[in-house]
UniProtKB/TrEMBL annotation:
InterPro entries: Isochorismatase-like_dom, Isochorismatase-like_sf. Residues 5-173 form the Isochorismatase-like domain. It comes from the Bacteria. Transmembrane segments: none annotated. This is Cysteine hydrolase. SUPFAM superfamilies: Isochorismatase-like hydrolases. Keywords: Hydrolase. GO terms for molecular function: hydrolase activity.
Amino acid sequence: MKSVALILIDPQVGFCSPLGSLGLLHGADELREIEAVVPKIRQALSESARRHLVLSEYSVGQFTEGDVEHPLSNLCVPKINDDCRVIEQLAAQSYSSSTVKHEQSAIASADFCLEIEHDLKVGIKCFVLAGFLFEHCVQSTAVDLFAKLLKEGVEVVIARDLVASRSKKYLDGTVNSVFNKLAGQGLKISNWQSIHP
């Protein structure tokens, strides 16, 4: 497994806890798929030699078109609430790096890109994406990372069993649609145990 790096995106209170902005707006039931994936991520982290943590810090109203009264206007805004904190189940893990992004895609973070370049130099051949929310930050990062590494001879894989979103996004077909779209763009989608037998 020395040639594999696991990239964990946004395991934060704002996205994953009933007490975060997303949970307070949509209710705890909407986080069931997310909560079910967390123990699987913890296990995968324990099996990975290279583990990258990517966190979000946004500005007020960044995803509400500037509407500061919207319930999600303070989503992962530092020092306003607990949204930016890593959820307890994954906070104690040891990570090879921890970087902060201010956009949906981690590729927008120069520090994250430096970590990827370092991984290439030490022989990483496969980058596996895990985390939340699948159809937003995970998708954006996967697409951009795939484009960035297209000529490097390495794989970018989305671990189907290590990503999740709100329950509604499964029921309305969004999650399945995004998986199909990403596969159509050439991204590899696989379960963790297939990547790490």
